[in-house]
Amino acid sequence: MNEHMKFPFGDFQRNGPWPGHLLTDGPDPPVLRPEGSDFVVGSNLTLSCFASSNPAAHYIWWVNGTAGPSGQQLFIPNISGGKSEVYACHATNPDSGLHSTAEIAVSISETLTQPGVLVNNSGPVENKDSVNLTCVPPKSLVAIVWFNDGEILLSGRQGLGLSPDNRILTLEVVTRNDSDLYQCEARNPDVASTRAPITLKVIYGPDIPIVTPPNSTFVEGYALTISCFSTPILLLSTRGRLMGHLSHQL
């Protein structure tokens, strides 16, 4: 004999004669949770479903009105479309046959959001400082690739380090040759998005000045011009003026 009993904290059904038989409850409306919120063509989609139920509910997924796989988690690799897909989780109490359904619409974009780049040192000094460039990708799970002046940077190059996920590029003890354009790209099997290049300027110098002419013997009465030149990244300051080249005529 089956009876429906009310308790102060909710409704329960009693199966069979009382006592000694378990009460069945639920399922409550399912809760759907996508892993991530920025989905693009080529990325992976994972949805989880949970509904409170006694005994534990059985789950079946529906995609755009078509029955799909069973289980609490739905995994779809390399999603396609570039449109909105409707996913529904149908939870059933195996003893009572009661059921409840929840659905979620997931928008699938055909383009990746442009990644950002963070620089921990905007004015590194030659032979003294290191620089970390951090690529901040979109929320989708993507691969990261770094470029230097249009060429792909690979780990193993002297003076360069990459984190295991390629998101952090480290220039160890920079030199003036590291002054260049850097950019990161976020990509999945189908689409890619590249950050506009950023310019890294390494502060160096002044080098040992070069004095011309090198001769020290001159004929009396001739005009003499002596030039002094060095190569800093910043202009030299002399007598309160900014000068990159100092020329003095005697």
From TrEMBL:
Keywords: Disulfide bond, Glycoprotein, Immunoglobulin domain, Signal. PANTHER family: CARCINOEMBRYONIC ANTIGEN-RELATED CELL ADHESION MOLECULE 8, IMMUNOGLOBULIN SUPERFAMILY MEMBER 23. This is Ig-like domain-containing protein. Residues 27-105, 115-199 form the Ig-like domain. It holds the Pfam family Ig_3. It comes from Monodelphis domestica. It comes from the Eukaryota. Belongs to the immunoglobulin superfamily. CEA family.
